[in-house]
Amino acid sequence: MGASVITVENLVKRYKELIALDHFNLDIKEGEIFGLLGPNGSGKTTTMNCILSLLKYDKGVIKIFGKEMKPDSYELKKDIGVVMQNVAVFDELTVYENVDYFCGLYIKDKATRKQYVEEAIQFVDLEKFKKFYPKKLSGGLLRRLNIACGIAHKPKLIFLDEPTVAVDPQSRNNILEGIVKLNKNGATIVYTSHYMEEVEQICTRIMIMDKGKNITQGTAAELKKMIRNTETIHIEILNLPDSVIEKIKELTHVYKVEYAENLLKVFYNGGKHNLIKVLDLLSKEDLSFGRVYSELPTLNDVFLEITGKELRD
Amino acid sequence: MQVFKTYFKVSKKHLGAFFIYTTIFIVLLSVFVAQRKEESDPAAFQSSKIKVSIFDHDQSDLSTSLVSFISENHNIVKIDEDLKSIRDKMYIRDVEYVLIIPEGFEKKLTSTDIDPSYGLEAYKFPGSVSATFIQSQINSFLNIYSSYTILGYDANTANEKTLETLSLETEANVSAALEEKISVPHIYYTIICYILVSVIVMCIAPIIIVFNKEELKNRTNLSCVSQVKRNLSIAAASLIFTLLIFLLFTVISFFMAGNEMKTGIGALRILNTFVNSIVCLSFAFMIATFVTNENQLTFIANFFGLASSFLCGVFVGREFLGKAVVNFSKILPAYWYMDVEIALSKYNNISQFTESTTRTLTYGYVIQILFAIVMFSVGMVISKSRKSA
Ligand SMILES: Nc1ncnc2c1ncn2[C@@H]1O[C@H](COP(=O)(O)OP(=O)(O)OP(=O)(O)O)[C@@H](O)[C@H]1O
Ligand SMILES: [Mg+2]
User: Fold this and answer.
1) CATH code of the domain made up of B49-167
2) What ipTM score was computed for the predicted complex, to two decimals?
3) Which positions 206-225 of B are in contact with A (Cβ < 8 Å)?
4) CB contact set of B380 (below 8 Å; sequence gap of 6+)
5) How far is the CA of B3 from the centre of ligand 2 (A)?
6) Do A106 and B12 count as a contact with CB atoms less than 8 A apart?
């Protein structure tokens, strides 16, 4: 692993009574796509804004590229790109002018800037919309413009705060691919989201947070290994007698069985060919069933098992 | 530089207000000028007498002579002496000029300490030619009368001699009054008080509001451009924009009244408008710190522009407004602008200024600058407190 790009130690942030970040620690290495995953209000944006010195915090030490980050650390800011959760563009400027404005906050040289702006617009695939005003762009295109504005100056460290909210699946995939590409080109990425699928898809390391605290971190595979669940089998079935449910519970590796609204859920920790075994039992009981499928554990299961609640609301 | 340049790019999208108010200005200006011209048609004017009401509280030899002098030349209309009926009658043009002669008037005139208005009070339409005409007659009467008393003539002889002298002068007086008093610069620089506040607030505040939007402000603060530099760029760009607007209206005034503008009085008018522009800029800055959308802004700009223009005597003369209103309007910067403009409108030449005129002008300029400083500071305090919240 590379050198530390961001280190956060014992960060405490209060909004009056509310403790938004509670002795929060973070260490992000060069070359990572680091995912901050947490439900709404868990403190992802607050973390980001504290790291960027946009917010004052009550306690803690924040370093970027080994140097302390302060509101006037302009040398550090040069190498940082930010895509904020709320789209920040001028309605009065065209797509091109917007990217040029934000790029120009970092890059003084005109020729370089022009090239960078063109590249950024190309990167988010907005060439056809250069002369458009933001009001005329769809939600997905607007998000892409927001990204172009954040990364045009070719920063080494990029923060993206839920860049895919309210974006259609097609655009979402484009955006995710783009982020991976930025990372391949050498940028370290901090990516916050409450969509576990996205985080799982692109992040090299994930931190799950809740109520301003780090719950756990690791690669997706590592996180999933932390929990008991290895597989959940779903079977649609009518009028399942209690006696059969009892029998299923006794199968090996089954640790929990739920039956509600004609859907049977069987939870496993370990074991092989679990699906065949449970279907075999059902046919022996002479029961017919509908749709059957098996699910591997998700980050939601990880979250559920640790906090006792769903990641998604 | 980036913020500065973008300011003007953004401003292009907010020029609508500029064109709207410039159009309103030109329309208002033509209406006002046309109205004065009509009133001042010399033929119609000389043959028709002015409808005057007089309240004589002095009942002295002098006041009686003055009243009889006026009644010989004009039609006297009897009305009640209270502000409401005076205003009503004047609005329907039953009366064009109301003169109030206070008690002790004669004593004051014949004493050594002469005040240029002789302590008389009058109600008239601002810029009305008939009123100016009758006022110049009254002033001539009193000037000549007091000269004769100073020479030692008794009241009766002074009166006779004055009437004699005046009959010679009247002819000349009429045409002089007419020529002078369709003063385009005065009308121009009165209406501009309303227009400037609207144009500057509606052009500048929306741009500042855009830059102050939470997301854009934060996003800019995350870059290499410091907050101080960003604020200075916005301030400098706003100032330049304001100066451009000011210059434009100044240039137009030269087109409309070239020669009259190329005088000391013209220069003082321009200075007054310059100071007023800075006040409007401060005001725009102040409201941009708490207004968040264009509708609120339009409402505040229109309300403030119209209300302060009415209260401070831009659309109707102050003599219609009642003491309380006039006193109240002193808390508005437009009052002090109009104070200067009214003072300037009485002269053709700087050399005629009395000490009290100079004082009025100085107060007017200085107080406007104080208003600008106060509003700017209030804006700073509001934006600071927003930031820490
Ligand atoms: N300016 C503020 N004043 C007071 N409380 C705030 C403020 N900003 C955020 N909070 C609170 O702090 C907590 C963390 O908010 P934050 O925006 O960091 O969450 P988040 O993880 O980014 O959520 P989301 O997924 O909705 O973006 C929330 O409970 C939120 O209500
Ligand atoms: Mg957030």
Assistant:
1) 3.40.1710.10
2) 0.82
3) 210, 213-216, 218-225
4) none
5) 27
6) no
